[in-house]
Amino acid sequence: MWERKINALEQRLLDIDGTIIHVVLKRGSAPEPLPVLITDGWACSFLELLEVADRLAQPERSGERPEEAFTVVMPSLPGYGFSPRPARPMSPDRAEVWSCIMSTLGFDS
Prior knowledge:
- The protein is of the alpha+beta class.
- The chain has one domain: Rossmann fold (3-Layer(aba) Sandwich), CATH 3.40.50.
- The chain has three helices and four strands; from the N terminus they run αβββαβα.
- Strands 1-2-4-3 form a four-stranded mixed sheet, sandwiched between helices.
- Helix 2 (50-57) links the parallel strand 3 (34-37) and strand 4 (70-75).
């Protein structure tokens, strides 16, 4: 069941300054959905965020207005889940990685 669910997701591996980051995208149903990045904490995974991502990407399924849809970006933390272990330790001073993920995917804001 989970393998099918995971394989049905839009996924990418991005090289961000030498660190490979696995990213899941849930495209919003609105014509121009705003991008939003949501992330899990240690020791969780994007799988725990799928229900939230579905509601953000397709609000009309929950009775909300479709124009309130977001395109949801869910990175896997480096070294956990589907992102390989980074060559060097990650720390809060490397928070710009999340910003680089968004710009690599073509989101300017």
